[in-house]
Amino acid sequence: MQCINTPAIIEESIKKSRFLGFVFPCTSEVEVAQHLSALQSKHAAANHIVFAYRIKTEKGIICRFNDAGEPSGTAGKPIYKYIEGHDLINVLFVVVRYFGGIKLGAGGLTRAYGGTAKQLIAVAEVTPYIEQAILEFILDYHQLQTFEYNVQKLSARIISQEFSGQVRIQVQIAVTESATLLQLFSGQAL
To answer: Which of 111, 112, 114, 156 is the most exposed place for a label (fewest CB within 10 A)?
Structure first.
């Protein structure tokens, strides 16, 4: 599996219709809804806001696509086929279409939406997908600097910290590296 680490945008015109393509890394349907809502607000005058996504969750892989008023199977599905064909995970593709007055027909729409997805993949930063785990630790203040050093060394990232009598930290780390961090701070893991 592969993923896209940073958002990307492309724009093209096909027979006077304007197609704006967006790709976003997403790890939940909540994130998908936030991106779609923002784009719907920003592009309220657009004729169609088509999307497709594929997200890995604890319950399995969630896949969805939507034609957004285009003829059935001519918009969301061609985008999704590129996502699936490149084995992308945790990703949202959105194509915003401003109709230019010339109908493209079913084949033209399929090529336009699929082609936009293909171009997005070409410009996006595609990397191998690495399964992540969320670990939680409770540390004494004097351990914090050593802990932060090891987190950085293991290419993990701190996603939350609470400071009180002790420090409660949540870390996102590659599953393959989690055993190392747990071993170093085994008495402090929750």
So the answer is: 111
